[in-house]
TrEMBL record:
It comes from Streptomyces cacaoi. The lineage of its organism: Bacteria, Bacillati, Actinomycetota, Actinomycetes, Kitasatosporales. This is HEAT repeat domain-containing protein. InterPro entries: ARM-type_fold (IPR016024).
Amino acid sequence: MFVDSVDSDIAPSGTLLGLLQRGRGDGTLHALAAPRSEALAALRHCLLHDPRRDWQVEHRSLYYARLHRDLDAPLDDLERHLFAPEDALCGPEEAEARTGLALSVLGHLASYAAGPGEHPAGAEPSAAADNAPLRLLRRYATVGANWQWALDELAVRDDDAGLRLLGPAVLSRFPQTPEGDAELAAAARDAFEPRPWRLWAEDPAHPEQAERLLRVQERGSFDRWQRQLRTPGPRPGWSVQEILDWAQDGYEQHPRLHREAPAARCLSAVAGPEDRPLLLAAARGPREAARCAALRHLADRDDPDVLDLIEHAAADPSPDVSRPALTAFARMRSAAALARARQWAAAPENSLPEGLASAAAEMLACRGGASDADAVLAALRRTVRLEGPDSPALWPLVDGAGRLSIHCAAPILRHIYRETASSQLRGRTAGALSATDPSFAAGFAIECLWDCEESTREVAAQHAATGDDRVVERLRRLAADPAEEAGVQSAVRGRLAR
């Protein structure tokens, strides 16, 4: 029996809400067939309570925007959510999590409202007059807590005149003090889309605005140059011991600075054969960060003793030692590392330090051959049984099942596809099913044409059986949709051309 998802915020996969929260293609198909009030309620819940496990890598905005358009849903709920009193109380990170999805959906709706083939950024100022999503974005950019996100959406969709009008309101957020100027410089530097800032810096109607932006940007460049001159990091002439001490010093600071990776890179430029005894001693020693930096350097050099050192470090009770040791092993590409992975994968369950068997199975999934299929399948089943369908450890194992064409893995892959709350993992599972499940083309591949992830839609466009009338119609719609990603459209046009 498999462990189910324990995320209480995600509804069961057999419900309309659960399907929409996961971003599955069946969610759109069921919503369009359900009573409109039920579909609107489920969509509203998703938009106001972002269901993504990691909003920085998972996509939902285009998926929800398309359904919002198909259902002809009103914007009232989004407007109330964005301009609720609690928005003013949010910090930057909380504001991104609270309103980022809604703002991204509004961005796509603004593009659709511009009409097929039109792009608001190149339109006349009057083109936004009947574009309600664009007006909401403009309003939120002037008063909302997550204004940077709204501004990035507008930067690729609004016209120059509309963006220029926002300049005074945005710059008034920053007081004309040294601290305010520093915050303004950071906001301009970190903006995902620089277009609005460039327009404001060149706006002849507001010369004081242009002068201030130029001043703070020059000051920011000067400060960055000074920081580079005063860097506390390794310098030319540092010895191996000094680099190890620098890594350990960061670990002992509060808050901790994890310098193991940069220290290992510095060691690659400094360490020579004569330094091997010192590095081996550090890899066995009690200083956590110095130990991890030495382990990583030795693993990158395929040192003959490093595999034993990694096995010993993986048993360390401190995760600050065991996790970097497993990461160092995962980076190895030697035949000796692959042979040791086979040895660890074959060991009886619970006979190895925690995580070592998983690291071995991951290496076999990524680099192993046909003879390793049984070990990868066993690890896949064990991980789902013990950790459920949302475990991060499943990602390489799912990829490995597809790479090795383990056909008997199809049932467990179908279970992961249905139950996982991660749309990224579901997309990887779809790719693995395309290589292992003969029924994929006429089954899940059709649903995947409506999936929230572009990579999943691309897999579907390559494999979906065109005997189903819905497939050809959907392929044509994706080919004509200006919001669709280029990779998906290339795959779609390749299928339509056959």
